[in-house]
Amino acid sequence: MRVFRSLLLFKLGFWAGMMAAAAFVKRAVPSRGDEDSDELALVAVMDGIELTNRSKAFKGGSMVAWYGGIAVDLREAELAPDARLSVRTLFGGIAIRVPPTWRIESSVTALAGGVDAGTPAQDDPDAPVLVVEGKALFGGVAVGTKAEAAISEPAARVAEPAAE
Questions:
Q1: Phi–psi pair at 100, nearest 5 degrees
Q2: Residue 63 resides in a domain
Q3: How, if at all, do strands 103-111 and 58-66 pair?
Q4: Suppose 76 and one of 54, 86, 103, 151 were both cysteines; which one would form an S-S bond, judging by CB atoms 3.0 to 4.6 Å apart?
Q5: Residue 68 structural domain
Q6: Do both 38 and 99 map to the same domain?
Q7: Is residue 79 located within the same domain as residue 95?
Q8: β-pair partners for 74
């Protein structure tokens, strides 16, 4: 019984510490960037961010989702040469929707999470390239033409009756 109680207290302390750290990060690290920004620095901690970017020379930036989610639509943006995007998730998700004419080069790794990156232009050597790098720990990263649908469609499917 003593071991069980010690384990329970450890888990409770761990989760309380994680939530306290997340609350601190939420106040200490603000998000930067809007629909016309060439570079983004988005931080979603116990929160959600939705952004449509219309930049004329999108250079990239960073995104951090910690117990939160980020959905960015880049279909109206124009990609600058050497565009690079760094993504990090911890119990969160990031969805980046891009035009089908862009090529995605991803080096995102996942631990107990998932990564989906690609567009129809993957084999086109002349397509503009967005390099995506980062980590997904107990979370997910989706980059592509249907990335945002992965977030919004499950709720719609639940509301619709099943076809028989």
A1: -70, -10
A2: yes
A3: unpaired
A4: 54
A5: 31-159
A6: yes
A7: yes
A8: none
14 lies in the same domain as 36: no
Q: Indicate whether 10 and 86 sit together in one domain.
A: no
Is residue 45 a part of any domain in this protein?
yes
Q: Are residues 11 and 58 in the same domain?
A: no
Q: Give the pLDDT confidence of 73-108 residue by residue, as tens digits.
A: 999 999 999 999 999 999 999 999 999 888 899 999
Does residue 164 lie within any of the structural domains?
A: no
Q: 3-state DSSP call for residue 81?
A: strand
Beta strand 79-90 with 48-52 is unpaired
Token pair of 164 as six digits: 């028989």
Residues 6+ apart with CB under 8 A from 15: none
Rounded to an integer, the average pLDDT of 19-27 is 80
The pair of structure tokens assigned to 73 is 């639509």
Task: Tell me the CA end-to-end span of the chain in Å, nearest whole number.
Answer: 51
Residue 11 pLDDT class (50, 70, 90 cuts): confident
Number of structural domains, the chain? Answer: 2
Query: Is residue 74 domain-resident?
Result: yes
SS3 call for 136: strand
> pLDDT by residue (tens digit) across 32-75?
888 888 999 999 988 899 999 999 999 999 999 988 999 999 99
In angstroms, the CA 136 to CA 66 distance is 10
